[in-house]
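quick one before i forget lol
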Amino acid sequence: MASTNIAIALLLGLFIFLLIIKVPVAFALAISTFATATYLKIPAMVVTQQMVRSASSFSLVAIPFFIVMGELMGQGGISDKLVALADVLVGRMRGGLAMVNVLDSMFFGGISGSAVADVSSLGAVVIPMMEKAGYDKDFSVSMTIASSVQGILIPPSHNMIIFSVAAGGVSVGNLFLGGVIPGIFLGLMLMILAYFLSVKRNYPKGRKYFLKEALHIIKDSFLGLFTAIIIMVGVATGKFTATESAAIACIWAFFITFFVYREIPINRMKSILANSLRTLALVLALIATSGGFAWMMAYLQVPTMITNGLIGITDNKIIILLLINVILLILGMIMDMAPLILIMTPILLPVVTRVGMDPIQFGIVLMLNLGIGLLSPPVGSVLFTGCSIAETSIEEVTKSMVPFYIVMVITLFALTFIPGITLFLPGLIGV
């Protein structure tokens, strides 16, 4: 028993220490895992095999397709078209450009599946537009980064694939379906907030479009949006697996980018593939090392200890779920999303299933928790990206984010305690 406690302290303590001294997460996971294995006299080959097994799941084949697709559409001119489409739909209202910001993030999130990609691609377009129209800079940045979290919830989201692997094979298709309504719900909540703040601060209305002009914009942008439709319809009808849908959508994105929109030359494909490869290498390294780390925790029965510890505090489902949300929100502020999914899923999934939460619902709640973390100091990558694009301080934007944090936490509680929001579509169409 003493040796087990020492091993747990070594595994977690060394990992936290390495993070504090700014060792990359993948290296911190690997070093702490192998050090603990050495202490326990577990052969290094056993740990290596667990890492390889973690990165060998067939579900992960979809990730490179989604990454390439996101790069293609992000660099291929779709950002401007989605902003124009959103402007046609909601721009004429009071604070319409703020609502455009939310809506185009909803559209782009259904293509890129990445909050950082959303802010990088759309933020450079929308933030200057909002400032020019008379919106405050800190409000413009806050709206941009808050709405980008929809990209984590609305499919395709490679983070959901990572969760599926970490959770032991939860259906990716059902996770995709489960994220649709929560993503739209979050968008509506942000649009309501945008309207009230715009009325309070007297932000302007947008322009009205003539029917012919509006139809042209809708037609022009639909080809890009069809990428997301391919994935959703393919998965929902069962015609394609998530991996097959990703491959078909990637081919479609290539065709639309280079042969329809033609805003970048085809020789840009080299840089697109290089960027995608760098992202993929990082993701797979995290998956492999997190798999070894998670295996070591399971070997030391850490998930069981935490489950028993939380249940020992209280058997009240509401309090347990609130505690889990608090833990995830705090961790999301200090650590990046992918490794947290891989580390925390094996620990917390037994707890939530024991109190009656469906794994699909937990997956979406986990995504939103960590998405809020991406917007929060000190490590929020989306917060830093938005501030960098707008050339403004993190302190100013963080103050401006307070009402957005409140709305997102309200949404989080709704997803936590109202299962139907997440489980309606998987129950109706389930694949």
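fyi Residues 2-429 form one domain.
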